[in-house]
């Protein structure tokens, strides 16, 4: 790119601006592709060294450096040390590679930079989100009264659900309008029940809701890391009898470490007994709905709301999540009108302003990624991808269960396997660090007080041969 074309700012219909746009995007594309020299996940650089190199970068020069030189610095100092999520050597977290077409979708999303707050900030984006939500509600078994909204991730979906269902509970039980009046005087009695190994977003949410962590009651899990529903019933009954207000129980459909799945059917019965709401945190396990193993996640339509993350099993780029609600009025918790943004008369004339359903105001058009990947791959394509992840986990578990060098406490239901190499905590920690320095990134967690290793197998490119190779590497580490 010439110095002259460094004068470009934004896209327009002019041939010159289009050429500048193409040049920037294509040179970026080349830089990305050129940076991929092997199949490792990470360069293995020491964190202090990387910090020093990135710390030394010129940040805001008096005179701009121009595109070529800026891209050069990115090529030299940043791209080589980016984590390559598509690598078959990357498996520590619920953090997936992005399907190729969804990266193209990101280009469309960023180029047009639509915002989901009002129809006039994203006409097609608003309609595609509305369409996606309707289809997703049907996919998860919700009826016509349902609705939903895209969010930045599972945390925001879980917290939004907690807020909205808390308000619904206070309204239904006490005729209390929390949106207007805030918390009632006896708000300290409100209780949210969740698995002891559920995601910490429920505690973060309780803090933000003014209830505090103490309002979150951790339910014990059984030997497969699922909520022990008999004990859950006892605990909630005791609290109820003591005059507390149990308002919400959450089912984790795929816990972060083990991918264990709470029994949504039993939890629904418990919720109904005490007039509580039930939320399904299916941030992880929702992907299984498109697999041959969909029965494992249970009937999520029994829940009053569902968190679905597309940036986990569905392999879409961050961010992509949705909160689905069985009763559309649940999302009224977020409805508020501003004269400059979402006038009431707009809605009457067919201009939908989605800001009234979400915690965020400015919001990305993430639904487009879902449309593009779902349309392109269809149920068949996704089934293959998600089946591969689940079957790879079963394969890995099978292999290490029969290998005396390993401990593998629980058979996977989804795509994660927690395990350890016999020999103690320090040995396992060392193995993970050693692999990291070789560009192989695996997970580490704690189970029953012991340091464990973890594979989160989301990558459909991973084969049994890769898994065998990794087992050997770990065993010889
Ligand atoms: C079970 C579960 N729920 C919620 C979340 C939060 O999702 P996000 O990271 O998209 O906020 C996670 C993240 O891993 C998770 O494992």
Could you please describe the fold and organization of this structure?
This protein is α/β, with parallel strands linked by helices and 477 residues long. The chain has three domains: 13-82, no CATH class; 106-372, Type I PLP-dependent aspartate aminotransferase-like (Major domain) (Aspartate Aminotransferase, domain 2, 3-Layer(aba) Sandwich); 378-475, Aspartate Aminotransferase, domain 1, CATH 3.90.1150.10. The chain contains 14 helices and twelve strands. The chain has helices spanning 15-35, 47-55, 67-78, 100-112, 123-139, 154-174, 178-181, 201-208, 229-241, 264-273, 344-348, 367-401, 425-437, 464-475, and strands at 90-91, 147-151, 190-195, 216-219, 245-252, 277-282, 305-309, 321-325, 406-407, 416-421, 441-447, 450-456. The strands form two sheets. Strands 2-8-7-6-5-3-4 form a seven-stranded mixed β-sheet, with helices on both faces. The chain has a five-stranded mixed β-sheet with strand order 1-11-12-10-9. Helix 4 (100-112) packs antiparallel against helix 12. The two termini are 48 Å apart. The mean pLDDT is 96. Pyridoxal-5'-phosphate (PLP) binds next to helix 6.
